[in-house]
Design a protein that fits this description.
Layout lengths: L14 H19 L3 H34 L4 H18 L11 E5 H6 L18 E9 L2 E9 L9 H8 L8 E5 L2 E5 L6 E4 L2 E8 L5 E5 L7 E2 L21 H11 L14 H4 L5 E4 L19 E5 L6 H7 L25 E6 L6 E5 L5 E5 L3 E2 L4 E4 L5 E3 L8 E3 L1
Parallel strand pairs: 6-18
Antiparallel strand pairs: 1-2, 2-3, 4-5, 5-7, 6-7, 7-8, 8-16, 9-15, 10-11, 12-13, 13-14, 17-18
């Protein structure tokens, strides 16, 4: 009995068909398990988009806050806006500008707005939301116009002159070191007083504030080398002892030369004031009267019997030096006590403007130790120029100390 074997041939499966079959099986398996890679990709992309939206929102908020902050103005910025607007206003109305020194014209913010030179001050919000009022005064000084913006923001802020700042920050005293009030003037006296002012790179000391609110300054150290007060031939002494008439003296010529020099001058040793600083000065009548060695006057009574008008630089009077000392024994140049408790002593010998009325050659000089002596005009000593700051000069910063001197705008 024979056995028959039926051999069934399997169909030949191409290799590619197998791979497709595997992929179909995998996809079927994934679907059966609820997992779809396309959906996963879509979710991933959605997350990225959401993150980007959040980042954009954050950046927008930060930008908005920054813009809000930048849209507030400091008081200094508003003062600058006023000043710029006033310069443009007077450029169109130059006939309204002052034609003489020490004369002031003023324009307020309403006029500047009406002329289209600036927006209303309410358009410049401050940090505290305070609306201010303002004006700009203009003076002619040293052939240049000086613009002084004045801003009033109530209790929050007010532009203040240097004179007002000094007076308000120093207690008025009647003894010891400090600021004294006398005949409408405010005068610093004593050894330790906060009366330093910085102009450009030079330190000055406030001697006093006049009744017109002009600030009288004397350089702390003077120019960088010594100079004779006068060296002309003196008939009384029969040699070049100098003549003690200030209005025709060598030291006056020297001061005039110092004033003409600027920061670009080749004579750096004589450089004292920048062009900008010069616009802050006013001309004044310099007291050049003579006095004798025994006089005990401390009010410039004798010195101011003769004046030299329209000066920009001068020297200190003997009365001003004597009154700066608070030693009660300081009576005249014959009492050495005047060197006590006196901030004007700087360790150098320097000239005063006051001459000796007892002869034709003697001039008062402060010696290194602080005592006063009548010396030959032909002698050599340092020159400490004296200037008057305009009453409108504005306070910028500082406390009046040597390390933090008052600075002006």
């Amino acid at each position: 009995m024979g056995i028959n074997f039926n051999i069934v041939k399997k169909p030949k499966v191409e290799e590619d068909d197998g791979e497709e079959l595997e992929e179909e099986l995998e996809e079927e398996e994934v679907k059966n398990k609820g997992y779809d890679p396309k959906k996963k990709m879509l979710r991933f992309m959605a997350i990225i988009v959401a993150v980007m939206i959040v980042v954009l929102i954050i950046l927008f908020l930060v930008s908005s806050l920054g813009n809000r902050k930048s849209n507030t103005y400091s008081y200094s910025q508003i003062e600058n806006i006023l000043e710029k607007a006033a310069k443009s206003y007077f450029k169109d109305n130059d006939g309204m500008l002052p034609q003489e020194e020490n004369y002031t014209v003023e324009v307020d913010d309403d006029d500047l707005v009406a002329a289209g030179k600036m927006k209303s001050l309410s358009s410049y919000p401050t940090k505290g939301g305070v609306v201010c009022t303002g004006s700009v005064s203009v003076q002619l000084e040293d052939d240049d116009y000086v613009y002084s913006p004045i801003l009033n923001c109530g209790d929050n802020y007010a532009t203040v002159s240097l004179a007002s700042k000094v007076i308000s920050k120093n207690e008025i005293v009647t003894s010891g070191d400090g600021l004294y009030s006398r005949n409408g003037e405010y005068i610093f006296r004593g050894e330790n007083v906060n009366n330093y002012v910085q102009l450009d790179n030079n330190l000055w000391r406030i001697v006093k504030i006049t009744s017109d609110n002009e600030i009288v300054l004397i350089t702390e150290n003077g120019v960088s080398y010594t100079h004779s007060w006068d060296n002309r031939y003196n008939e009384q002494k029969k040699y070049d002892a100098g003549i003690n008439n200030y209005d025709v003296s060598r030291v006056k010529d020297f001061l005039d030369d110092v004033y003409k020099n600027s920061a670009t001058s080749k004579t750096k040793d004589k450089y004292l004031l920048s062009k900008k600083d010069k616009t802050k000065l006013v001309t004044y009548d310099l007291c050049i009267g003579k006095r004798n060695t025994k006089s005990e006057d401390k009010k410039n009574t004798e010195e101011c019997k003769q004046t030299l008008k329209d000066q920009k630089l001068g020297l200190l009077t003997l009365s001003d030096y004597l009154y700066a000392s608070v030693d009660p024994n300081c009576k005249s140049i014959e009492t050495k006590s005047c060197k006590n408790y006196n901030y004007l002593i700087n360790g150098k010998s320097w000239w005063l403007v006051t001459a000796n009325s007892e002869n034709t050659y003697g001039v008062y000089v402060i010696k290194v130790g602080g005592t006063v002596k009548s010396d030959y005009a032909s002698s050599f000593a340092y020159v400490r120029p004296v200037v008057h700051l305009n009453s409108n000069v504005l306070f910028k910063s500082g406390k009046g100390t040597e390390d933090k001197p008052y600075k002006v705008r």
